[in-house]
Amino acid sequence: MTFSLRVYGVVKRIPQGKTLSYKEVARRAGSPRAHRAVGSILSKNFNNTVPCHRVIRSDGRLGGYNRGVSKKKYILKKEGFLK
Model's pTM, two decimal places? Predict the structure, then answer.
């Protein structure tokens, strides 16, 4: 299985209202130092079954989102992660 598929598998299991850091996704996908690769993979994802908006930076900031950071913030608020 490719690293991309492992990343998508990890991200698909993030429950609504929860988040993981890019670093934690990389660790769970089997490559703990590949957090930048996780960001690159997710930036190209447009599959709605992969909730990449639930992946944030280790410092708690939102990070990027291929549909715009304001959209990421909106969705996370709607899911109850942000107030």
Answer: 0.94
